[in-house]
Amino acid sequence: MTSELTNQFKEPIFDVAQIAHVEVLSPTPKETVAFYTDMLGMEIVDQVAHKTYLRAYEDNYKYSLIVTEGEEAGLGHVAWRTTSPQALERRVKALEESGQGIGWANEEYGHGPAYQFTTPDGHKMEVFWEVEYYDCHEDKHSKLMSRSQKRPKHGVPVRRLDHINLMSSNPAADTNFMAETLGFKVREQIVDNDHVIGTWNSVSNLVHEIAFMQEPTGAKGKLHHVCYWYGIPQNLYDVADLLKDHDYFIEIPPNKHGVSQAFCMYVYEPSGNRVELFGDAGYLIFDPDWKTLTWEMEDVPGNGDTWIGAVFPDSFWNYGTPAPATVPVKVAAE
Amino acid sequence: MTSELTNQFKEPIFDVAQIAHVEVLSPTPKETVAFYTDMLGMEIVDQVAHKTYLRAYEDNYKYSLIVTEGEEAGLGHVAWRTTSPQALERRVKALEESGQGIGWANEEYGHGPAYQFTTPDGHKMEVFWEVEYYDCHEDKHSKLMSRSQKRPKHGVPVRRLDHINLMSSNPAADTNFMAETLGFKVREQIVDNDHVIGTWNSVSNLVHEIAFMQEPTGAKGKLHHVCYWYGIPQNLYDVADLLKDHDYFIEIPPNKHGVSQAFCMYVYEPSGNRVELFGDAGYLIFDPDWKTLTWEMEDVPGNGDTWIGAVFPDSFWNYGTPAPATVPVKVAAE
Amino acid sequence: MTSELTNQFKEPIFDVAQIAHVEVLSPTPKETVAFYTDMLGMEIVDQVAHKTYLRAYEDNYKYSLIVTEGEEAGLGHVAWRTTSPQALERRVKALEESGQGIGWANEEYGHGPAYQFTTPDGHKMEVFWEVEYYDCHEDKHSKLMSRSQKRPKHGVPVRRLDHINLMSSNPAADTNFMAETLGFKVREQIVDNDHVIGTWNSVSNLVHEIAFMQEPTGAKGKLHHVCYWYGIPQNLYDVADLLKDHDYFIEIPPNKHGVSQAFCMYVYEPSGNRVELFGDAGYLIFDPDWKTLTWEMEDVPGNGDTWIGAVFPDSFWNYGTPAPATVPVKVAAE
Amino acid sequence: MTSELTNQFKEPIFDVAQIAHVEVLSPTPKETVAFYTDMLGMEIVDQVAHKTYLRAYEDNYKYSLIVTEGEEAGLGHVAWRTTSPQALERRVKALEESGQGIGWANEEYGHGPAYQFTTPDGHKMEVFWEVEYYDCHEDKHSKLMSRSQKRPKHGVPVRRLDHINLMSSNPAADTNFMAETLGFKVREQIVDNDHVIGTWNSVSNLVHEIAFMQEPTGAKGKLHHVCYWYGIPQNLYDVADLLKDHDYFIEIPPNKHGVSQAFCMYVYEPSGNRVELFGDAGYLIFDPDWKTLTWEMEDVPGNGDTWIGAVFPDSFWNYGTPAPATVPVKVAAE
């Protein structure tokens, strides 16, 4: 009875489970780490050579962020966890066949064997299965079983890593690569006269674990932002108030995104890397046959960017890291 | 290198995508429907014989709730959508083998072929692949592409169906049945001296699309509650305020659940069926190797039930529908 | 012991208690009233000739808003209630002496004898003591004793009138007039090279019941906005979402004001009159010896206007009603 | 024209402006102070002998709380600031005439001459005019002019002192005393068969700066609670989450009071003193001719106490400090 459909419908790939961690580069690692600890309430798990490993209080693995000292701000790498060891084998095979594979990593801090690769635009990534969980000291145990440790007493603490947004000289190429090799689905996209300006892609019920946005000058491999999650809308105003009083730069105040419906805000950490904070879950996608939503760029301002009044400043579309020497950091507020 | 693990790890089943709709029975269908429309801002899609089809404004299928006139309050059935037509074939095969299968449904209102079955406790369910989407009239289109229609102007409108909670004479048996035939994973459970009191199970990143709780008298097939989702914590207080002023019974005021971490509240609609409302996403599970969290019943009051002060009233553990003639409906407030 | 201070300190005037109601003019009264009822959940109390009387559900007098049909949008009048009949006598005497008095009003709908006057800029006002309370029908009584009626089931209902903001060709003159004749205290002000651009004035613990802002072209008697109060921050996002989906113009999305610290947003009702909505109480002033806070205009953008990122659009500083024929209504969103 | 009314209406007293500070006694001052600093984000201003002076970040005087080491938990004293030096003279005269006056205080830390007195039930109080403002170090200045210092980086910081609630063997007597000598107005009251169980009294637009509640055993001079203000509802959940994870006792979770409509919660600090936290402004009273709202005790549970579901635990009505040796501290959660 359903035999006809069976012939037509291509079953999804369920091999990648989640974003596991992100590495960012910072020429001012001390100040960058202080931003994440003092303002966002994250914890330093370890410091090895020029790398600081950090986690949010509901991240359940050993860490979700690496701040690595570097000459310029920008992306180090993004790590994905598969849904099984077999899934890892299948994805490594696909990555090898794509020609974008690098090989198995030498370093395995906090996880098992990791296969490295780059997107067509040159963003470095890795995929692994085995992972080390956070080992919470008895004094810090929460009675809340799903919480990895007690809620921190400092800053306005974020709960977990949410997603990454990368600038690309060719968003369509990167998007297709992620879909074909890792099974990402394109949930929403912005097109301008048939040119793909941005895509939001996920392997889960989230609208995205990874987005790609057009880098306007054609530069490659840039970072647009890393996003951490609160899940509580008011917390964005609380942390924004704290950030403002402590002289951090807020690029875009709390508002609801049209794309993803998430309650969001944007701030730059001291090295210049943009950080997004999420105040709710936006909408979640359960429909297994989701058709990509396509926004025309002309409909985006005041609808697709911030749903409620105001529009994104130019910096949102133009600024990524590494950035030119003269950074227009305070576009929005001056 | 990962070959050893491969031999050990059983890959998950990804065949069921989501809860698609729920049918509830009501001896007072007019009042029950008025509760859902006037208070929760839902829309009547169609009325056929003794059935009223309703949807929330971000539900993307034709309907998510059927209110059917019946002699007693309680559950009609629960419908699941698979991730593909092939997945439907596989699940039907597993259900047939389980001995719990009924057969293909005669009625296909709003969806394609549906295979019916019951849980060991007798709750009626169905599973299908093809589904009819909501056809929004042009006047009601939202500029927000992921929203199925404009936000309603009445009540405090819920956004989408979230989950179902069923009382069972044997929660462990129902839980195992859902895991084995449909691939549900047990995210959290409550045990009392090794006896399973409750389980929270999902096929998605949610902590649960279905929960089973011990029915204390051994009665079978009862409904504990249906849950709709706001995603915004304050909305629970807004709707609670509205419900209180319009004389509906609020069993449990807004609070954070320990289990699932969701911001929740409970109310009874006029027929006596319990309805839960969710104010956020709780925590989401991305770890593909999640180990079931086990609460001892003695740790639940003030931790697993409501995280912040107060504990659940007895009615929460004892009351389901259909209920005995003398219902202790106002346990909490009197 | 305190005798020296006694000689120095001028005791405050406590004769005006509150803003009692506001009359606005609208060339599209039907649409203006629909905005207040469908979106803000207000109730029509009465309609007499070309006037519609409205109230919010926690306003305790008969009405707080009059929408009067007029050729142009703008202010009708503002009404103040005194703290006693004796206080009314004293204020009438002061108003008569100021030369701005008009005389006792012919019309006393919903209140007792009202003495009329204008500000130096020509805004019409009145002051009275006796007032008619809202007579709530038994069916609509709330169990919440301080609530004048049940929470409405439509729109995102505002709770009460909060304040008025008037554009003036000479804010300093109007401010001094209100201080001298009615006892208003200047809580905050903006100056630009010693010229007063705006003042926020109150007779209560609020930062203002009335503000005056510089009209840039020198036009007189304009209305900047009327403000209604929710007291709950999230409600601003809820009503903004509703307004956006129903095609109303949101000039400034929810944000925290620097001046007053109130959580605010701005929208235009269909006739072009600006409406502000307040999501909390901002800060309250209890210090009886409050010293006016003075902002330099150069420090206002990004601090005194919206505290968290972004700045006010030009329309906020330039647009009032009545407005020139070609109104730049959609400055912010286009 | 208004001459008749003039003869009838008694003009209000406007001589007391606000609650200025509260002194609490604690047998565990170190732990009590740690609660206020680590959890509520307050700052230690000074420590002199057995007294610690603390303030919230939007308190504008030098301090709002004194924690004094004592053998038992309970109230030290409450301080009120007048609206002028003349008002102080008038109130001292009235207090002297009442027979409850003690005399001018020997100690004037942080303020000028203070006249001491007790309520009929024996609660110690003082009233003064001159006050020392908080002297904010340049490094801690906020750009927000109405904020006394930057928002703190630790705990979930409260903004200012709100009110005090005292248990009394005779609430009516204490209420009348405050009205007659200091001009307090009774905003709401609870009566049980004509006996006054509780009163909420204010000199400002707040529903209360001071409440009196019946002490059930007839003990005198007890403290029910001190209340600090957030003004943001979600902050109650944030601080409750923090308190729960750090093992403090939450007596009543966040909920809306019927009396005062305030969003509230109750916790005990380590010495056993109850602390309330306010998440919004409730409703504000602007009507100068406010008639006391009277609740019958039988209507209070589920309406006057917590508006939305649930009722107060017995401890709320019975427990104050100093408390009997065996304190039923964990009534609610066990």
UniProtKB/TrEMBL annotation, chains A, B, C, D:
Enzyme Commission designation: 1.13.11.2
Alphabetical list of Pfam families matching this protein: Glyoxalase
Cofactor: Fe(2+)
Record domain VOC: where: 18-130, 160-280
Xref: CDD domains: BphC-JF8_C_like, BphC-JF8_N_like
The UniProt record lists the keyword Nucleus: no
UniProt similarity note: Belongs to the extradiol ring-cleavage dioxygenase family.
KW Oxidoreductase (keyword) present: yes
Enzyme class: oxidoreductase
UniProtKB keywords: Aromatic hydrocarbons catabolism, Dioxygenase, Iron, Metal-binding, Oxidoreductase, Repeat
Record field: catalytic activity: catechol + O2 = (2Z,4E)-2-hydroxy-6-oxohexa-2,4-dienoate + H(+)
This protein's name: Metapyrocatechase
GO MF terms, alphabetically ordered: catechol 2,3-dioxygenase activity
Gene3D superfamilies membership: 2,3-Dihydroxybiphenyl 1,2-Dioxygenase, domain 1
Origin species: Planococcus wigleyi
